[in-house]
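User: Design a sequence. Structure:
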């Protein structure tokens, strides 16, 4: 059984993934925070990925890394710099030094959030990040490309939409990713024999999708879910949105400076 490291394992996406991948891989799960529950077949290692020594320690002896760790929404530059720029570089470099060949980098729809909703985009469009967070995801994709070309690593970037058991609003009807479709996309990223550098969109087969996800389909992705099933219910609850953010795929990220972090970092003593 392959040994797989999941960083940022305490977050929402990490929690879904741990449940979905249990029994298929030997999971090492890591986070800056503790985990509410550690399954008996998981190995938990606490780590601060902005420290290179921690990144080196957790990437030792695994076959693949799913690098979820980092700041997961728009926020202050110092937090994004530490977690998503320094932390991401540490993970790629530590994996390289430890001889880990395969990295799955969960990027985000916010790497391309300034594309208009009326435009369908594929994996080859140039980035149009909608904030500092989006820029950090473009950085991760670029780093992945460099490590693939220069060091022969196998890098699979998933531009995640919104991972949730159900789509939560109108925008998410276009970018929803069910946990089981997430697991399928990730499994392709771990198992596909011919990955060099790929970008796929992390979305289910949504009728209102803004993405041409043919690259994922080429690699064998067959999503089972479609947000349209829940559209009536979702649209009934929908309130009129901000007119600017309604134009763009990234939604509210295109107009605000901070989005509430669903998983705040533990408070450190002194100034962060
Ligand atoms: C993301 O990239 C975030 O990590 C997630 O929390 C959601 O905000 C998602 O995008 C989204 O666009 O819904």
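Assistant: Done.
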């Amino acid at each position: 059984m392959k040994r797989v490291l999941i960083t940022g394992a305490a977050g929402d996406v990490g929690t879904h993934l741990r449940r979905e991948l249990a029994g298929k891989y030997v999971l090492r799960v890591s986070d800056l925070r503790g985990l509410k529950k550690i399954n008996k077949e998981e190995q938990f290692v606490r780590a601060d990925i902005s420290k290179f020594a921690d990144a080196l320690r957790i990437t030792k002896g695994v076959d693949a890394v799913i690098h979820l760790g980092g700041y997961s929404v728009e926020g202050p530059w110092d937090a994004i710099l530490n977690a998503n720029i320094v932390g991401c570089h540490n993970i790629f470099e530590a994996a390289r030094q430890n001889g880990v060949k395969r990295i799955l980098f969960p990027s985000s729809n916010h790497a391309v959030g300034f594309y208009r909703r009326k435009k369908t985009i594929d994996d080859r469009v140039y980035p149009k990040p909608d904030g500092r967070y989006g820029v950090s995801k473009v950085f991760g994709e670029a780093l992945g490309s460099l490590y693939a070309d220069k060091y022969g690593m196998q890098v699979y970037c998933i531009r995640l939409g919104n991972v949730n058991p159900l789509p939560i609003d109108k925008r998410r009807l276009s970018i929803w990713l069910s946990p089981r479709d997430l697991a399928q996309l990730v499994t392709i990223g771990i198992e596909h024999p011919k990955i060099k550098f790929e970008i796929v969109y992390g979305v289910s087969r949504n009728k209102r999708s803004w993405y041409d996800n043919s690259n994922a389909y080429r690699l064998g992705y067959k999503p089972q879910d479609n947000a349209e099933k829940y559209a009536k219910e979702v649209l009934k609850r929908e309130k009129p949105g901000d007119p600017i953010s309604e134009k763009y795929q990234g939604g509210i990220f295109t107009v605000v400076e901070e989005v509430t972090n669903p998983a705040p970092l533990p408070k450190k003593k002194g100034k962060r």
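The longest helix spans residues 77-97. Residues 72-73, 108-110, 160, 162, 172, 262 surround D-galactaro-1,5-lactone (CB under 6 Å).
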